[in-house]
Amino acid sequence: MRIAAGVEYDGSNFSGWQCQKQGVRTVQGAVEGALSRVANQPVSVLCAGRTDAGVHATGQVIHFDTEVLRDERAWVFGANANLPKDVVLLWAKPVSEEFHARFSAQRRAYRYVIFTRHVRPTFLAYRVSWHHRELDVERMAEAGRALLGEHDFSSYRAIACQAKSPVRTLYKLEVSRQGPFIFIDLEANGFLHHMVRNIAGVLMAIGGGERSIGWSREVLAARDRTVGGVTAQPFGLYLTEVGYPAQFGLPALSHVPPVW
User: Fold this and answer.
1) HEC secondary structure over 75-128
2) In sequence order, which residues have a C-beta less than 8 Å from that of residue 13 and are 6 or more positions away?
3) Which tens digit of pLDDT belongs to each residue from 121-134?
4) 167-186 as b/e, with b when 16 or more CB fall inside 10 Å?
């Protein structure tokens, strides 16, 4: 039987999603350990998108195969009883063997949260990206529109990115403000390594007046990561939603992080 599940986690105290050497705390390790206790046998999971150290998720999706029969409630509440407080299963559902958490995904959505204040945050230290100066949201939004559509995003991916192609289609890039919080909401058919954080870094430089509005387009056209500026902090980044074909019947939920 193949089971799909939704996962939410605070990545502050994890060394990313993917299992690493023994003794390194990862989200995958925590989830696999909890599900293995419910199944009373080893369980291995695959996710829609691996997140880096310090990155959070409110809408991560996983799948795993098992011969053990448990109902959906047992998978969710059994796993949550064995998970640390910074990880939770949101739902679980049997799916066909054609479903794959990563390869069946048609789109992914991220939110990047910026906190603007002249002094650093305390309670939000690892849940937002702090910027000590005000940022011009209108300039950021205008610069972001130049990135919409299908492009070669070589300038916006990590030099060590292992994706075979740098071409992605960005369906949505919106910038909004709520009090001291600035939100960058993005949706695409897929994202490259550090793509969202590199876009955020460029938009913050433009919002702070350090660069012109047209710089985002110039960086894109260069197809060269070295011209793209600073990679923004991981702490403000949230994987909020993964979209799949309707045939799989997964919950159509967008889990947007709240304004604290």
Assistant:
1) HHHHHHHHCCCCEEEEEEEEECCCCCCCCCCCEEEEEEEEEECCCCCCCCCCCC
2) 25, 86
3) 999 999 999 999 99
4) ebebeebebebeebbbbbbb
Neighbours of 203 (CB within 10 A): 30
Q: Model-level pTM?
A: 0.94
* Burial class of residue 158 in the structure, from the number of CB atoms within 10 Å of its CB (0-12 exposed, 13-18 middle, 19+ buried): middle
Strands 149-152 and 129-131, sheet pairing: unpaired
Dihedral angle, C-alpha 14, 19, 23, 29, nearest 10 °: 70
Dump pLDDT digits (tens) for 42-71. 999 999 999 999 999 999 999 999 999 999
What residues are labeled active site?
52
